[in-house]
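Page header: ASSEMBLY MODEL / two components / 552 residues total.
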Amino acid sequence: MTPAEIRDEILDILEDISPDDDLDDLDDSKPFREQLELDSMDFLDIVMELRKRHRVRIPEEDYGNLASMSSTVSYLEPKMKDIEKA
Amino acid sequence: MYDTIIIGAGMSGLAAGIRLAHFDQRVCILERHYTIGGLNSFYRMGGRDYDVGLHAMTNFARKGTKKGPLAKLIRQLRFRWEDFKLAEQNGSSIRFPDSSLDFDNDIAKLENEIAEKFPGQIDGFRSLCGSLLDYSDMDGDDPHFMRSAREVMRTHISDPLLIEMLLCPLMWYGNARENDMDFGQFCIMFRACYLEGFGRPFKGVRLILKNLVRKFRGLGGELKLRSGVSKIHVEEGRAAGVVLDDGTVIEGKRILSSAGNVETLRMCDDISNVEVARAGKLSFIESISVLDRMPKDIGFDRTIVFYNDSKTFRWQRPEDSLCDVRTGVICSPNNYIYDSEEGELPEGVIRITTLANHDRWCALPEDKYSAEKVIQYENAIQSAVRFMPDFRRHVIETDVFTPKTIRRFTWHDNGAVYGAPDKQLDGTTHLPNLFLCGTDQGFVGIVGAIVSGISMANRHCLQSAT
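Prediction written out in full:
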């Protein structure tokens, strides 16, 4: 997956977790927490959805990399580059 | 071999099952009863639908709300707000002799009532509201969590009557401890009842349960009814699986039990002695009266009335009698603001709940038991009509359930409705792969039980399971 495809995938997961949030105005450089009402349970869901959909495993000590869209995409890029977009 | 075996198909077990099945675990929910729901169930009798447990769903929130337990469970279980379709309450009341407070889903109503009826206490009430713990402090670690709620209230409010009145609904809707309340539990219930409020789906608790089951099965989860667990088999310090009442052996990597703390430990075949005294003691008798007209037509529009017939509210098991009707809860499922497209419920219903002693009910011989149900029904209503219009001549059908009924269908010790007073908030047991959810783990009520199932599934069955 390209970084743009990974970004789309994260948006799709966020849409799934929180369908009522408006994601169009999401600022990639700002933390999710400041823009969306995500709590620790929701962050666990991002991790779990990535595992469910793409078998990507994220160890707990790496959760901090999921703070914003841009940090998430750069963290996931090496892990997901060999995954074909469905 | 299942990834997770869940004991009990109540709100917490079903919610946990959805989380695990959603993330591709092989999950099986085992339920001894022939139907789902546990402490919040439903039945049909004489052509009528009845709810057990649900008076109101606490923690009301409007569609799109981001914070709070209801929003959390909708997100975590991937429901839509429409799946619950909660109608708001008309309004509820706390009625004591010579004093009454109304409240609804806007805290301003209760504030105004207090300002009017207890003018010297309104500042204290506001400072109490300001001192409430947040939901994020509810894991039990906060130093104030285990404090006495009465003690904390007294630092804000000097009129003992107002303290009793405010405690009455909160204890009725979610306090397993007699006479006092843990401050943490007080905060949970204060938010749930006064700050968020009451709602009800038009079709009652069955709508919620059916949605939970449909989702669970749709994700590939297995639900086995009439499949009571008689034993949890322990091998080398780990739960290896369960043995059903009919002898069937089912293996699992881990077990999540909503059967209750003491009840679960008793099933473990490595434990020979369980201290039953730790189980909860508070149980209820509830009567359902079907009326020949709507409650509003006899001048009763309240959703819930919490009454107490003296200045002191006694929240304890009646020791010397079958029931204690000095305090009770009156509720009418008709008195919600339902959508016009849903119309009205087919018949008027009044439900009355009072405190009851499980052991005394269970000790009655069968003929005496039936006779006492009639007597205690009449006593409860006689007590309640002091706080609402007398509806007795409009009753066309009644049903009563007792602590014995609750015990018979939930297998909870003492017919305890809110579980043990001392919660096992982290959900752990003496075995590394056996966990608790439901009333003995943490939150109570419908929303609380669902949140309990979700959080224990996340913590013990998803996060750590790699």
